[in-house]
Prior knowledge:
- Chain A contains 18 helices and 19 strands.
- Chain A has helices at residues 16-23, 29-32, 44-56, 94-104, 111-131, 163-180, 246-253, 300-307, 324-328, 338-350, 367-380, 388-414, 469-489, 503-521, 528-542, 549-569, 581-605, 633-636, and strands at residues 36-40, 59-63, 81-82, 156-157, 184-187, 190-198, 201-209, 215-219, 222-225, 258-259, 264-270, 293-297, 321-322, 362-365, 423-432, 435-436, 449-451, 638-643, 652-657.
- In chain A, the strands form 5 sheets. A 5-stranded parallel beta sheet of chain A has the order 5-2-1-9-17.
- Chain B has 249 residues and is an alpha+beta fold.
- In chain B, strands 2-1-5-3-4 form a 5-stranded mixed beta sheet. A two-stranded antiparallel sheet of chain B has the order 6-7.
- Chains A and B meet through helix 3, helix 5, helix 6, helix 12 and helix 13 of A and helix 1, helix 2 and helix 3 of B.
- Chain A: Residues 532-670 form the Fumarate reductase/succinate dehydrogenase flavoprotein-like C-terminal domain.
Amino acid sequence: MSVLDSKVPEGPIKDKWTNYKDKINLVNPANKRHIDIIVVGTGLAGGSAAATLAELGYNVKAFAYQDSPRRAHSIAAQGGINAAKNYMGDGDSTYRLFYDTVKGGDYRSREANVYRLAEVSSNIIDQCVAQGVPFARDYGGLLDNRSFGGVLVSRTFYAKGQTGQQLLLGCYSAMNRQIARGKIEMHNRHEMLDVVKIDGKARGIIARNLITGEIERHSAHAVVIATGGYGNVYFLSTNAMGSNATAAWKIHKKGAFFANPCFTQIHPTCIPRSGDYQSKLTLMSESLRNDGRIWVPAKLEDAKAIQEGRLKPTELAEEDRDYYLERRYPAFGNLVPRDVASRAAKERCDAGYGVNATGEAVYLDFAAAIERYGKVQAKIQGISNPSKEKITELGEAIVEEKYGNLFQMYEKIVDENPYKTPMMIYPATHYTMGGVWVDYNLMTTVPGLYCIGEANFSDHGANRLGASALMQGLADGYFVLPYTIGDYLADDIRTGVIPTDTKEFDEVEKEVKDKIDFFINNNGTKSVDYFHKRLGKVMWDKVGMSRNEKGLKEAMAEIKQIREEFWKEVKVPGSANEMNPELEKAGRVADFLELGELFAKDALVREESCGGHFREESVELDGEQKGEAKRNDKDFAFVSAWEYKGEPADAVLHKEQLEFKDIELKQRSYK
Amino acid sequence: MNLTLKIWRQKGPQDKGKMVDYKVSDISEHMSFLEMMDVLNEQLVNSGEEPVAFDHDCREGICGMCSLHINGEAHGPDRGITTCQLHMRMFKDGDTITIEPWRAKAFPVIKDLVVDRSAFERIQQAGGYISVNTSGNTQDANSIPISKHAADEAMDAAACIGCGACVASCKNSSAMLFVGAKVSQFALLPQGQVEATDRVKNMVAQMDLEGFGNCTNTGACEVECPKGITLENIARMNRELFKASLIKF
Lengths: 671, 249
Ligand SMILES: Cc1cc2nc3c(=O)[nH]c(=O)nc-3n(C[C@H](O)[C@H](O)[C@H](O)COP(=O)(O)OP(=O)(O)OC[C@H]3O[C@@H](n4cnc5c(N)ncnc54)[C@H](O)[C@@H]3O)c2cc1C
Ligand code: SF4
Ligand code: FES
């Protein structure tokens, strides 16, 4: 018997959320003033939650490791945010967004949660516009949409190539209003290092002031974790340098189950690595796949010539190019979901067709789009018989308008002009679908401890569709958590302030301080990065885009080995009572070194291929789908939720069986 | 390439601080500036010295954390980029590079190259928002059409990343470009009209309180701004302020 209760309400899927809201307990406005809530993380998820909870009247204490909520990594999202508004009249609906998300996630998400997400999606756009988010508009003054991978409608709202920035600034402004009113107490440059439980309930946290090094105690009636994803377990990823799993991992060690750690998204369109000094990878928005065509040379000798710099991509004739996505997936072409596009790129590069010196890159080519747009523009402007140059000029202007900032970013990094020569791209770790297990209320397995945004195991199953993370973060924070948390807090109206001078706080604070002292006093010989890079290499090579039993077992052993060396040999200069970035990194890498092993273990147990998780042992052997990933619904239609038992290898698996009542389980075909 | 770095080191807010010389070698032209700093820090850690503290996070020019004054210019040579987007191909073998924190009274140094920009936070809290609660029954997003030009212009103003390069570049340490950008974003949108008067007054009052200097139209801020925020935003803010001064409630 599983101890997991998803708490999904009864009734038809369309009515669940409405009925649920009608029946939950509410906290009256006067009582909210006596209730404190801690929100750790102020990206889209935490920021929207903090602002909304404060508007409702709760006392919110919010925490972020950056010097302002505006700098959370949500700021880096480029492409857009989905919503089932059907402004384009192309047949979109709540059901269709729900369906696309479940299908895109390869049928490994909880139906009821995803339906609710689709249901509140259109409120998000209304809310953001009301806050002054400058979404792109058409000439009639109405909101514009674009389309993203894995779907057949245009439902993505965007603000140039800076959608995440604008949404985050919207929620930052809502927070600022509440900070000014005194309803949010904002703790910037603070890192949560552990959670404190009293009588089994989450009642506070221990945080380090990153400026002074002081260890602080903070109490509340409920704690919300919104600290983002754990992609940096790979060392190189599109995440920010400081993105970390510490809060999520620490609550796991205190009783919150960790779900589906092996579901990680490797994004197909990132700028390839250029050398060993590389500190992070940069994403080129997926929206580029709307207009860019992906290809590699069709002949090995051409690929070789390109790798050695003897041949230029522009010199290769049309028939010598292999537009492999269009070839393999005629229905979706360059817009197949991310996992499919990434694996296809790896397949070509592994076969020797890669296009830069490392052999790990494919082309993303805009020449066709430039010509197409140029011709349309020439017509619009009434230019008869336009020259080739004129068409290119007109087309480039349109492409610049759509993607100008991305092209500029590319040129700054790679030093090549993507209007004139195709971009080079390669997959990189980008997003983690796995995370802390939560029920329908977004509560973890610890009472009073919630987890929202990318940090939870979320609504994206085994693969997330583009523009759906922003949607989920804001749905959780603006429209879901504020209801569900009230239901829990209704029991706490008479509790009064939670004191921090108790033995529970003493104990956890001591654990935290001991660990910091260890780092400072451990006169090792190797830097934190040295270990992080080694971990990242194991993860990428053996727990990356394609996985097998042998590799995963090796990975588990190797990670354990690195972890043991880390605790012996790590060197952290400076002291504990000051700003100390090396000390911050040490704590984060220590947690990645445990999480990485559980990650590999989860991948080992899941002997099927689904979404971002590809097991070489599980592929279709014949038919139209030959060579494609093979999902196994009979044995693996569950969420794996891991319970901490000391060593990561000893974690105990709990299964949440997934039921599909409203969507038929199907082979995911993009052919 | 091999380089000499002259870097500002300061233990804490009370410390006086000084420039210290370091040498780095084998720097690739493909590295970003901050990756070069990583190389230096790895070198320092390995030799038991304290690494240089500097702010950074996204390393793709959007979070606004990175903030180095390089060879006398905010975000270094090259235009339209942040420090993290600066590449070593802008330098050559044998160069000496001076690296300092933002210098402004309103941005005190915390440690080495890290400064305290919380003054920007307080300015935003003074009015950088539209008062709308989250309810789930806000009017439909398309109910008020906004001309594409206004929306695009609002977006251009909203592109500010709050890095503070404008302040660091200004001889008066004025924050007008930053504040002007936020005021402009809302002034250009219908949603921002209701609170326009109070917003501009309160934000400007807070700006003055924080100790930022006056604007004397030298335009250095516009030149160094990584996000192309134009002086037009300062003009618009001044107009808004003038308009506000005519309204009495
Ligand atoms: C380059 C890039 C582009 C993307 N583009 C898109 C897109 O176009 N569309 C889309 O839908 N999704 C996109 N995504 C995904 C999406 O941006 C993220 O999944 C989402 O923004 C995560 O939001 P969050 O609020 O959960 O976490 P984050 O925004 O990562 O916020 C985490 C917060 O937690 C804080 N924090 C972390 N650890 C601690 C700690 N220990 N103590 C205290 N505070 C802590 C941080 O300070 C921060 O405030 C993109 C992601 C990346 C990396
Ligand atoms: S106006 Fe420009 S320089 Fe000033 S804070 Fe904004 S982005 Fe930075
Ligand atoms: S590190 Fe984010 S803008 Fe430079």
